[in-house]
């Protein structure tokens, strides 16, 4: 039988908890759409407005994957001629990768979190760091990158996460997570990241939910998560995928 949390209605809230009473929400923040699933909270909102409702250092770690500003949405994949922005959507073309987040975004991210892990950090104006994450994808295709970089605020040696991810291959099998977003990252990548940088009891923030695979990883590893997504179609698809994952786990 499904738990009630899987049937929790989606509400419009000001997204402030009792701990946030000194941070009154703006008019924009009051429009935030929220769905709670146990310790995982999904928000359909502008992430800057959301962060403005949180006190300083409210989150232990922010693990985020912002747009890189490389025009990826205009890329064509395969021989079909279909551009990335036309895939995984029923509501028309999406141009989410035309630019990078604003300085205000990065300032708010640093304010509300004690540590940050920012995928695509090599595309942004961030301070020097000794701890980059290199995700090695084992990609044999010459015109695709061997991996991706994440900038971190941690004072520790750089790390490599070796996890195969290309085409229809993922990890040690050919079974991949159902793809619902063009830049979707695998669940196991987030699980490995949490194992390397987080400890039990930490509160995690993701400001760019996308496919929301990090929500499944946080649930599997026992972390509380607040996750934001501004696009309603991606938000609904991500929430649906998470609920389906929870239903499957209850069957076994």
Give an account of the 3D structure.
The protein is α/β, with parallel strands linked by helices and 252 residues long. The protein has a single domain, classed as Rossmann fold (3-Layer(aba) Sandwich). It has helices spanning 47-52, 103-112, 187-197, 213-221, 232-251, and strands at residues 11-12, 33-37, 40-44, 59-64, 113-119, 132-136, 147-152, 159-162, 165-166, 169-170, 203-206, 224-229. The strands form two sheets. The chain has a ten-stranded mixed beta sheet. Strands 9-10 form a two-stranded antiparallel ribbon. Helix 3 (187-197) crosses helix 4 (213-221). It is globular. Residues 1-25 have low confidence and may be disordered.
Brief rundown of the structure:
With 252 residues, the protein is an alpha/beta fold.
Quick one: biggest sheet?
10 strands, mixed
Query: Which secondary-structure class do the elements indicate?
Result: alpha/beta
CATH class: Alpha Beta
Query: In the CATH scheme, what's the topology name?
Result: Rossmann fold
- Report strand %: 15-25%
What is the tally of beta strands? 12
- Percent in helix: 10-25%
- N-to-C SSE series? EEEHEHEEEEEEHEHEH
In spatial order, strands of the major sheet run 1-2-3-12-11-4-5-7-6-8
Rg is 18 Å
Oligomeric state as shown: single chain
CATH architecture: 3-Layer(aba) Sandwich
Gross geometry: globular
**Count of DSSP-assigned helices:** 5
The number of distinct structural domains comes to 1
Task: Give the N-to-C terminal Cα separation.
Answer: 12 Å
Name the poorly predicted regions.
1-25
Average pLDDT works out at 82
